[in-house]
Each structure stands twice: as structure tokens, then as C-alpha cells.
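Protein modeling request. Please complete all fields; requests missing the sequence field cannot be processed.
Requester role: graduate student
Desired output: 3D structure, C-alpha cell encoding
Chains: 1
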Amino acid sequence: MSNDYTLTTVVPFADVDRNQVMLLPQLFKLLQEAAVQHADLYGVGVRGIAERGTSWVLNRLAVELKRYPRRDEHIRLNTWSTGVQSFKGYREFRLYNGDELLLSASSLWLWIDLRTRSLTRVPADIAANFPVGSGSPPYRSELDRLRLQAPAATAPALALDLRYSDQDANGHVNHTAYFDLLQTALLRTARSPQPCRLEIQFLREIPPETAAVEVRLETRDAETAFSLGHATTCFAQGLVA
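Delivered output (241 residues):
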């Protein structure tokens, strides 16, 4: 099995917006699918969740988009691990159309016990056997030190409903649903729904009984800070540009 993993597909009509470019949540579903399929090859993906009672959850993500994929384009996503340390796993993504680089991303994942929802150390055999890829250097090598500041409490907020389809097999709101909420909020506040740069830190799970969340946005020079929360709880925060 290769240390790197490649997922190839064609952008379908159902995954694009009114501008015929790929929707943010669909784009991140593609990244998630590649990560899951690669991890499944080594027994640490979705297939092993029921047996182990543990799983990877996304904690931080930094993305740069040169261009959004368009409808009917043939795209190729390369992903590889850059290492496992204690309860952390690091993964890179590069998305191409032919030789054209469309997206670069670095991600940090945490290994959790699904019963207690607490961090737990990755088993030594898994950490030792999961391969480190031979791809290009990380897009953001300092990702585990990334600190993002939420918008001010006085910044305008938009309440958006959650749906049944936002929950996943781990029993929580999937991280790709956050990008659907964010893209909707950007559009409704007259901001570009296609940011070229996105950084996000997932702080805590959205409980399955949550009916709606508030997306708060604050413009800071050329960037927009955002947060997703409910009452006094912040679920995620980040920035787009």
C-alpha cells in the first residue's frame, strides 16, 4: 500500500453552486473522504470505529485555494500523513486539475475515545505502522500552534438551522456542515462565498439536540473572522480571506 493516497473524481452538477463552482461543504467532503479511505487501508478509519470505540476528529485546518473546481472538471486529490504524535495526527492535501494546483491544505486530527469524548493516546502499533507520506513539505507546518481569535461579542450574528443530514456516524455534527453554515452566512452578509484562504479551529462538538447555531462575522482589514456558537458556547472559530 502506498504511503500517499490519491482520489480521482469528476465534479458533479449536485456539488456546484449558482456560479458552477464547487460548494465549500462538498469540497471539504472530498478531503474528508480521501482521509477516511486512506485511514481505512490501515485499519484506523471508519471501519474500525465500532471495534475500537475510538476515532479521529478534525481539530484544525488551514486551506489555500488557487481556484475552485468547476462543474464536470476532472480533479485529483493527493493526501498523506506527516506523522502521528501522542494523540495527534497530521495530514496534508493537494488538489489538482491536470497539472494545475487548485488547493493546498494542512490538517490536525485528534484521537478520541467515543464513549468518554476525551483525548486518548494513539496505540503504539497504529502510530508505528501508519506511514508518513513522501509528498511536498506541509502547507502550514506550524498548524498545531495556530491560534485564532473569535469575532467580538458585539459583532453581528446570523442564526442558521441545523438539519438531520448534518450529523454523521460518530453521532455529532460533521465538520463539513460547519462550512455549509459559514458559506451561507458569508453570502447573506454580502461577502464573497468563495474565500481564497480559510483557517479554522474546532473547539467542541455541536450537541446532536442543537436546533440552530449563530454564525458571527467581523471584518478585519482584508480578512473576516468568524465563529459558530450557541448561547455562551463557541463550537469553532477562524478566518477567511
